[in-house]
Write a structure and sequence with these properties.
68% of the residues lie in helices and 0% in strands. It has seven helices and no strands. The longest helix is centred in the middle third of the chain and has 35 residues. It is elongated, with a radius of gyration of 25 Å.
Length: 198
Amino acid sequence: MAEAHQPTDTDSGGRGRGTHPAPRRNWLLRLGAPPVAATALTATVALYMTLVVFGNITDFGTNQQFVQHVLSMDTTFKDPDLMWRAVESPALQNAAYIAVIAWEALTAVVLLTATWFWITGLRHHAYDHARAASTVGLVMVLLLFGVGFLVIGGEWFVMWQSSDWNGLDAAARNVALAAMTLLLVHLAGTRRADPERP
């Protein structure tokens, strides 16, 4: 009776199946794991928010004008039924702008911290702190651009009526990026990639 062939450590070209997983397959699984993608996207949003804050501080006047025009509603259709909503006080306009910058700065700090948690967590497959910090930072982005720009700026101050001072498209892109990143951040924590799996 012929003996059944038993696979040995030298089958498949001598690369060893039993104790030595294929190195190329191993690094590909690690690099393609959801936590790596979550790290990259969180870092992207963190860098973006950091540059937004840097730009608003070093070029204070440009977006200050944007906020002033949006709040004063001076480039809208100037419907009398809506113009009572306008905020024309320079002090209140500047306070709103400074509050936006402060919110952006805090958001950037939270997301930079989250990025660090992801980087360190990748070594130990520990993502709880990274996921929590990312969630806080990304929700802050959603509140800023979703509630602040789309809802309050776009609808309350009817920014959609202005052809000169309209930030709805940029706000929508930021909301989409933050929402997509938030979704991936939570998918990344549901399953740990197995580097030994073929």
